[in-house]
Amino acid sequence: MSNIDEKIWRALGLAKLKQQFKQWFNRDNVSYVTYGTVAGLALWPLVEAAAQAPPGQLPASLYIALGSVAGGVGSNLIAEQLQRWRDRAAPVTENDVITWIRENVAARGELLTALDAINARFDTFTAAQDSLAPADQDAFWQKLRQELAQLGNTPQYEAILQGKGVIVQGEGAAVGDIFTGTGNTKVNGPYYEHYHEAAPGEAVDLHSLRRTYLGRLLEQTRFLPLSGIDRASVEETTETQNAGRLPLKTVYTALLTTSSEGGPFGGEMPGLLGRGQGKAAPISALRQLDRQQHLVLLGDPGSGKSTFANFVAACLAGAGLDHAEINLDLLTHPLPDEKGDDEAERQPWSHGPLLPLLVTLRDLAAEGLPAPQEAATADHLWAFLENHGGTPAFTPYLKQEFEQRGGLLLLDGLDEVPEADRRRRQIRDLVADLKATLPHARILVTSRVYAYQHQEWTLSGFTATLLAPFSWGQIRRFIDRWYTYTAALRGWTENKARQDAAHLRETIAARAELRDLAERPLLLTLMTSLHAWRGGTLPGKRAQLYDETVDLLLDKWENLRAVKDPATGRPLNKSLAEMLKVGRDPLRDLLQKLAYEAHAAQPDPASGQAVDIPENVLINALLSVSKREDLQPRLLEAYLRDRAGLLIDRGGGVYTFPHRTFQEFLAACYAADRQRSEAMTTAARSDPSRWREVLLLSVAHASKSYTGAVWDFVPCLCLEEADTLADGRLTEAEAWGAHLAGLAL
To answer: How far is residue 460 CA from its own chain's centroid?
Structure first.
């Protein structure tokens, strides 16, 4: 059985658990014995497969099976231990495997992550339960719950624990916070948990449901996407369970607004190289949220609106879970001064650990609104959460708490709601109804600036505030935190991290063209990661920055999770280019064409959101450039599903670019061809909200090939001399053409 795949491993592992777990249950009361026994018996088929392999070389099929199920650094730890067991003289026993897991799982987070992935994929806990007599099953689940709590991974198993009638014991869980009946009468005393859809008259463990809800929200919000876009970081984070994600707590930099004490928009905007100098200090986004019960947070794309909403939600969720690191202390961390150091005072938050609720308005508009001719109310939000939320059983209590006690409702992406079918009007009315029906709740709405400037979008009774560009202190803090994180990730010394961070700060301060870019959090993130990869240098122009970033994201999207042949070091699976039998250039050309066509057809270009690309469109496009006649669409579907980078899977058969910026830049690369420049300029004159950024990026990209490229565009933008016009006045299209020509020059 030296050759093994996931299907064989699963069948043998579950059979091992069902046949032998009962023999190991109720052994010595040592740490993590239940978790270790389940995981150890599930791993046993791999131990046997390794034992039958030639000395010094595990079978490639074992690496593939392990990588496909567990992935990440943890799978490498398991593979290394399998090799040690294979090479040792004494035979390996089940007890050896169980003991190794027990002794290492708490201290090695990567191992725990890998074992959790195996348990989830194979449903090992249910198999272990099935081996026991009914009288022992409650004790099994109780022991397991206690061990999971000690390991800190209970939230990942709440769904299965909720269905097992677990007796609640331990810290804060034995008595109280149990409500039953339509009147929600509190029950005091020992009890059993019974989880249902919160039907009237049935007992509900509100404490556990609440923790499950908060745990899922914390997991959803505590990471930033695109964590490692430098090549070294891509290679490393692709090996981890959190590939492509950056822990928010490691680099989050508090945001400022343009507001000062003078009014919502009456203050001074912080300058890049300093604020203060006798001017009123800007108010932080958190202070605004603390002051205003109903707040609209406005900002440009990439300014940090959604990141702020996610960060606040994560901190409040962590506070509700007594998380050691993600909590109110992190939320109120002092602002940076001009040197990037902490100011003396913490940021204010006077409302305690409010119950947070984060809603992406784009998803609500797609799945939760009534027919276009019907009015949308708060009830549609609650129904949407019951049907599409991660913890539907908690929704009635979530609604009750928001109505009676309040909470923080974060509505992200007002501008991303499409105009079609009156959806924007419906969302506006729904928000108004939420404000009216939740008098004790605080509400934050995020939006791009341009959308909220339209009168029909304005939310009555909400205070609007605008996110400011990063100050110099914020830039310094972000760079320092990024390099501190990168040093820990890549094994650098503290001295190297400090030197590289200082070099990047000095480079940005010395180059005016970089200072403008660095004021946008998104672009600063890209610049910092590129600086790390390029050994201390940066592309100076925006188009070049996007160009290199696109290449890095394409690398990440194209390459597989790194499962390598231990004998040769070669990848066991093919890259996308190898699968299609095409080079990287045709692949990028295809993506540029897709971006251009999708951008041109986007129903609502002013939304600022990257367009959705249906999976069948992407698959057919990839097949069209493939040199393989035998390539099946289902293989491409499986290949793309597990990857993120230049295109990301949103679920439901839809892909999108990670940010509108990349969609616009790729479309610009396609439009930069001389044969398309006239069509590009005509489109920009007539539809500037769609094509303005694409045109400017297209000129910059074309100028890489020859310096006079701008003159391919300018004559098409300015078609007539002013004195030849019939009435001496410019039409709107002509005025836009002249304006865009000036920007291009």
So the answer is: 31
Using the structure block, give the residue that is written with the tokens 């394409």.
Answer: 554
Q: Report d(CA 112, CA 95) in Å as an integer.
A: 18
SS3 breakdown of the chain: % helix, strand, coil, rounded to 5?
55, 10, 35
Check if the beta carbon of residue 130 is closer than 8 Å to that of residue 20.
no
pLDDT value at residue 668? 86
Say how far apart CA 311 and CA 253 lie, in whole Å: 10
| The pLDDT of residue 432 is above 50 | yes
Interacting residues of 71 by C-beta distance below 8 A, sequence separation 6+: 114, 117, 239, 240, 241, 561
Q: How far apart are the first and last CA of the chain?
A: 69
Q: How far is CA 705 from CA 30, 74, 462, 547, 701, in A?
A: 68, 46, 49, 13, 8
Residues forming a β-bridge with 446 = 297
Query: For the chain, how big is the Rg over CA atoms in Å?
Result: 28
Percentage of the residues of the chain whose pLDDT score is greater than 70: 70
Between 652 and 179, the more confident residue is 652
Helix axes 60-69, 33-51, angle to 10 degrees: 150
Neighbours of 734 (CB within 10 A): 17
Does residue 182 carry a pLDDT above 50?
no
Q: Is it the case that residue 188 has pLDDT exceeding 50?
A: no
- CA 19, chain centre distance (Å): 41
Residues in the chain: 745
| The predicted structure's pLDDT at residue 708 | 56
Please name the amino acid found at residue 88: R
Residue appearing with tokens 């990661």: 529
Where in the chain are the domains?
Answer: 6-168, 223-466, 472-558, 576-662, 672-744
Q: How far is 71 from 49, CA to CA, in rounded Å?
A: 18
CB proximity list for 99: less than 8 A, separation 6 or greater: 36
Statement: residue 519 has pLDDT above 90: no
Hey, what amino acid is at 193?
E
User: Is 179 within 8 Å of 185 (Cβ atoms)?
Assistant: yes
